Amino acid sequence: MTRYILRRLLLLPLVVLGVTFLLFLLTQRLSPEMRASLYIKDPRQMGAMEEVIVKYGLRDNVFKQYGRWLGSALQGDLGYSHSANMPVASAIKEYLPATVQLAFATIILVLLFGIWFGTVSAVKKDKWQDIAARLISVGGFSLPIFVLGLLLLMLFYGKLGWFPPGGYSVMTDVTIHGPNFHQYTGLLLIDALLNGNLRVFWDVMRHLFLPAFTLCIGSFALMVRVMRSSMLEELGKDYVRTARAKGLAERAVVYRHAGKNAIIPVITLASIQFIRLLGGTVIVETIFQYPGIGRFGVTAAQQLDIAGIMGFSLMVAVLFVIGNLLSDILYTAVDPRIKLSE
Fold first, then answer.
1. Cα–Cα distances in Å, from 47 out to 50, 51, 106?
2. Domain containing 186: what range?
3. Which of 10, 84, 129, 289 is the most buried (most CB within 10 A)?
């Protein structure tokens, strides 16, 4: 296990280098003049564009420019994001906690309901429970997430006024930036509890519910299908028939024996979905004006914020590689029969 982890960690820099270099190549499709204009704040400085190009070496070959960016990134300097009006590292630090909070809320809902519905669907195969679960799964998987998000926003905010968009209300904004509120983790739900401020906690929950529920529907549908398929396969194996022949209770056969093996592919799916959520769900965060890292990424792209795009891409690449590694490690924790290749 140790050798496997070390080998994967050694491959991490290569993957990150490959991803960031490919993205850097794409930015080179912009002319030096267009990239230089991003550094100019005052239209009266447009005559000094050539000086900007020379100063930042925008006509140098791509390897030299990438080397400069990589050298700065290794020192923690990811550049300045003009779309966020702050250094890229500071922007990631500010926006990522909101997405982490959203990702945890979503994945908990997905695991709780997805595993339960998938198990019930497999155990009650071809009965009304199975048919209902499959209809919900297909419907959730087929409905575009932006359509679902807009419908939920129209109903629960536009008509009922229950769950507003955004990350929190103006009153909460004043409170969390006040002298009596301490941000220990950056995750407002946890910090609100640590500060004993239930008003902030419930306000953040109200703003979090709709984006988390919207994300849950699409992921939940896929989780149900995977769990059902895996559980059906396990229930048809010899060890399950043997357990039933010994007189074990059906609940013990399903959950203690078949369930432990059926959940293995779910771990892979859940870990990949969680890392995808951490990378930022652009559509949902945009629809609900949620102040997460995905919204920062799309704003950077819309405003040709190259530093922001590169910093966002670097973060996502690292998260995906580490997430896949953790997924493989979790395999062995759930099923010791699985051996990682040396």
1. 8, 9, 50
2. 87-334
3. 84
Pair of tokens at residue 227: 């769990």
Q: Are 296 and 282 contacting, i.e. CB atoms less than 8 angstroms apart? A: no
Q: Which helix (H) or strand (E) holds 86?
A: strand 86-87
Residues linked to residue 80 through DSSP beta bridges, in sequence order:
87
Tens digits of residue pLDDT in 42-100 = 666 666 777 777 877 778 888 888 888 888 888 888 888 888 888 888 999 888 888 88
Encoded amino acid at 141, one letter: F
Contacts of 170 (CB under 8 A, 6+ apart): none
Task: Find tokens 């309901």 and name the residue.
Answer: 113
How many angstroms from the chain centroid is the CA of residue 58?
Answer: 33
Q: Are residues 290 and 187 in the same domain?
A: yes
Q: How far apart are CA 313 and CA 199, in angstroms?
A: 36
CATH value at residue 94: 1.10.3720.10
Closest Cα to residue 220, out of 150, 283, 137? 137
Cα three-residue angle 215-258-252, rounded to 5 degrees? 105
Overall average pLDDT of the 291-320 stretch: 85
Euclidean distance between CA atoms 204 and 104, whole angstroms:
14
How far CA 300 is from CA of 26, 76, 182, in Å, comes to 15, 19, 30
Domain co-membership, 206 together with 305 = yes
